[in-house]
Amino acid sequence: MIIPPRSPSEGCGGGDPEWVASLDILESAALRTLYAASRQFACATNRNEILDLLVKGVCALTATPNALFTSTATAERLLRVAGCQLPEGAREELHLSPQVLAMLDMRGALVQGESAPEWANVATSMNTHGPLLVLPIPMPPQPHALLILALPNGPLAPHQHLALINLVSDAVRALDRIARAEAIWHDASLSHSNRILAAVNAVTDIGLLYSNVIDQMLNAILNQILNALNLAAGAILIYNDESEDLEVASALVSSHHGQQSDLISLWQAAFLPTSIAEARKAANQGQVLASSSSEDQFFLSHLHSLGVTQLISVPLLAGGWLTGVLQVVVCDANPINQYQSQILHILARQTAVAIENARLFAQTRNDQERTSAVVDATNDAILMLDERRRVMIINRRARFFFGISERELQEKDLEQLSIIFNRIFEDPPRFHGWLRQLLRSPTERVVAEFRIIRPEARLLQCFSAPVMDLHDRYLGRILVFRDITREREVERMKSEFVSNVSHELRTPLTSIQGTLQLVLGPKRSGSEGLPQRARDLLNVSLSNTERLIRLINDILDVAKIEQGRIELRRETLSVEDLCRAAVAEMHAFANHRGMSIDMDLQPGLPSVLADRDRSTQILINLLSNAIKFSVGSQSVLLSARTDGSMVYFSVRDWGRGIDLENQERIFQKFVQIDSSATRDVGGTGLGLSISKALVEEQGGRIWLESELGRGSTFTFTLPVAPGLPTRTEPSGNQPLALLLGFTNDTARLCAQFNSVGWQVREVDDLSGLVDLPTAHVLIAVLPHDPSAAQALLDHLSSNEISRGMPLLTLGQPHSPTRPGIKMIASDASVDQIIQAALSVVATRQLHVLVVDDDRYVRPVLVRLLQRHGFRVTNVADGLTALTIIEQARPDVVLLDVKMPGIDGTEVLRRIKENPLTAMTRVIILTANDLGESLQSQVLRLGADGYLEKPITYERLISMVMSPRMQDENHHEL
Ligand code: ADP
C-alpha cells in the first residue's frame, strides 16, 4: 500500500514556501537534524555524498528504512544508489511499470495509489508488505529518481512529513549546485569569458548563500575554484586580526583528483609552516607567487613527491585590505597559463569580498546576539512594536510575565496582540485604549500602571517611549514593564505601619493637650494661682504638643494619600466662605507675626464643587507658608478669580521667594529648601505635597511663580460647581438664627445678625425646620390672638424639633408666656432683638453626653465642655449611653467609635433609628481610622459631625455649638 500525504492542502513540492513557512510545527530534534543535514549538504563536494546524506537524514527524521533509486539507460529500470536501514532481501534494482511511470510523470510528487497493483514491484524492491511512501526527486539527467520509504509503523505524522519535505528540498538544492559546477567545467562549448563569468557567479552565489556559516562558505568556494580551474587541491588561509597571522581555514583535494588525497598534507603538520610562510610572502608582496621559488628543499622535494609542479599563493584583497591568501596546487607538467591565472585573480577577488561580507555578517550577528542577550538579561519586560505596529522585540522577562512563547508574539500585529492581552490584563480595554493612543503619538513618553491576572497576578508599571534611529526616524514604540507588586506591598505595609503608630499616638495626645488646655485656660494665661514660670513651661508644652499633633496629622494625611484613601465630600461651596474661613483661622498667626492678610475676590465668583475641610486645609497651608516665609511686617494677599470652568485661588507673599531649581521639587514629600531657615519657623515639608494631592484629587492643579528675594505666588484651581445653586451653609463656627413668622424689617435684622457673625434664615412654619440645620436660636413672632399664641407656644415646646432649641418670642403685652421662654416686645428694635437672642443662647445650658471608654480622654473632654458652660454627662459604654439618651434627651452626643461591647457606629444607628432620639445631634469622635471608610459610613448613618482625635479645644466647642447636618444639599461624588 502506498500512503498518501496527510492532507491534500499540504502539497508536496519540496521547496514550497508554504512548507518552509510552517516550519514552526517542527520539534526541536527535527530542526537540529535538518540544520545538521543542511550544513553537510553545503560541504558536500559530489553527488553521491549528497544522496548518502539524504537517506541517512531520512532515517534520522522518520526512523524508517529508505532507499534512493535512479533510472539507468532505460527509464523503467532503476538502480539503488543509496539506502539506509534497508531490510534483508531489499533489491538493488527496481522495475517500474508504464502505468507507474505515467503517474510519476503526471504528478512529480508524493505518490499515492493504494488500489494500483502495479506498485507491487516497488514494495518488493524494499522487501516489505507494509505501507510505502514514494517521493520523486528531480535529479537531471536521470529521467527518474525515487526516494522510497518503507513505513512498517504506519503513516508519518504531519511534522515528520514536513521535515522530510524540507530535507529533500535541501538535498535537491545541493545536487543542483554540484550539477551546475560540473556543467561549467565539462561544458566544452562554454567560451572562455563565459566560463569566467559562470565561475564568478558561482562564487558570488556561494558567498551570498553561506555568508552565515563562514567555514562552509570557504569550503564551497574553494571547491568551486578547484573545479573551475581543474586544480588538484587548494587551501584558503584567513588573516587573523588577533594573532596577526594567517591561519588555514579550509583545505581541500578536488573531487576530480580524489586519488591524490595526500595533497592535503601540504597544509598539515610538518609542511604547514612552509605553506603558511609561502602565503605570508605573497601577502607581504601583494602579488601572486609560485612556490617553485621556495628555498625550502625539504618542502620542494615533498611537492615533487606529490607530483605538484607549482604551489600558487594569491593574496585575497578586498578594498585594499588583506583578508587572507588562496593557495592552489598545479599538478600538470605545464605551469598555470595566463588565462587560468586571470580566472584565479578574479575568483580570488570574489572570494575576498565574500569573506569580508561574511565577517561583517558575523559581526552584525554577534552585535545583535549581544544586544538581545542584554535585552533578555534585564529584569524588566521589554516589548517593542515596529512602525507597522507589529511585535519586533519581546524579551525573556516579557514572555515570562505574560506566559507566552516568543513564537506566539513574534510578528503579530496589534489586533492579534490585543486578543492575547485580553486574557492577561485585568482591565484589557484600559490597556488597549492607553496603547492605541500612544501609538498615534510619535513623541509621547509616559508611565502607567496596569494589573495582570494571568499567568500570575502582578502589578506592572509600564513605561513607554518612541524609538528613533540616528536620523530621528520613527522605528516604533517600546514598552518596558516593571513588576512593582512587591514594592507596592512594602509601601502599603510601611504606610499602614506609619498610620497605625500615628493612630496610637493620637489618643494620648488628646489627653495631654486637653489637660494642658484645662490648666492654662482658653487664653493660655493659666489660673491665678499658677506661678508665671510654671505657666511659661506649660505653654511650651502645649505648643510642642500642638506641633506634634500637626506633624501626626500631616503624616496621616500622607499615608492616606499614598493608600488612595483620601475621602472627599464634594459639595457646592461659596468661594468667599472658603476664603473667609481660611483667613479667620490664620488671622491670629499673622497678627502674632505683625502681618496682615488681604483678600481680593473677583465680584460674582461662581461656587466651586469641592470638599470644604480639605479646601480650607489647602488655603491654610498656603497662607501659613506665606506668613512663615515673609520677613518683617509685610502683608499676604489671598485672591480668587474665575475663567469659566475653574476658580483660581492665589496666595501671594513678598517674602524670600524660591529659586527656579527648587520650584519643581518643593511639591515633593519632605522637601524643605533651606532646612535651617525652615527650622526657625517650624514645618515638616509635607504641607505642599499634601496640598498638591488634595488639589489634584479634586480635579484642579497647583503651581508656583516665584523669584528669589521677591516673594512667591502659589495658585491652585478648583472646578466650578455644575449648575447647582449655592446654599451658604453655616460654616463650622457660624451660629444660626431661625426666624418664624417674622416680617418687620427682616432685611435689616439679617444684616445685623450677619455683622456679628450669625447666619439668619426665615421659615414659614415648623415643618420647614425639618430640612434645616439645627439652629442656635429660634425667634418666633407670637400671633396677636392670645389663644393662637398659646397654641403656638404649646406646639413649639412639644415639637420634637423645636423642643431642644433656645427660643425667643416676640409678643404683645398680653401674650401668654411660659417659664423658661424669653419674650420681648414685638416692636423692639433690631439691636434689642439681637441682644435678647444672644442672651437666650448664652443662658441656655446645652446638655452634652460624652461617650468614650478611654479613661484618660473622657474626663478631659468633660472638663473642657463644662468649662464652656455646658451641662455634661459622661459614660464609658454604648448601652448605658442609649438609655441615657432616651431618658435625658441630651442636645449633643459626643460618641467615640471604638468601644468594647456595642461600638459607636451601632450606638449611632440605634439613636437615629429610634424616632424619639433621632433628632439628637451626634458627633462622632475617632482616632483617624484608615481601616475603613469610616467617615462616610457614619455620615450615612446620620451622624451630624465628625471629629478626629486629637481634638483642639476650639474645634470641639465650635462643633458642639453648631454641628453641620447632612442634608440633601450634600453632594457626595
Ligand atoms: P513646611 O512648610 O511644613 O516645611 P511645605 O511642604 O508646606 O512644608 O513647604 C515646603 C518648603 O517649601 C518649605 O519648607 C519652604 O522651604 C518652601 N516654601 C513653601 N512656601 C514658601 C513660600 N511662600 N516662600 C518661600 N518658601 C516657601
Automatic annotation (TrEMBL):
MF term (GO), any: phosphorelay sensor kinase activity
GO cellular component, one term: plasma membrane
Membrane-related topology note: Multi-pass membrane protein
Catalytic activity reported: ATP + protein L-histidine = ADP + protein N-phospho-L-histidine
EC number(s) reported in the record: 2.7.13.3
Location(s) in or outside the cell: Cell membrane; Membrane raft
Entry annotated with the keyword ATP-binding: yes
Modified positions (4-aspartylphosphate) in chain numbering: 896
Keyword Transit peptide attributed: no
Family matches, as SMART domains: GAF (SM00065), HATPase_c (SM00387), HisKA (SM00388), PAS (SM00091), REC (SM00448)
Main location: membrane
Histidine kinase domain: residues covered: 500-722
Name of the molecule in the record: histidine kinase
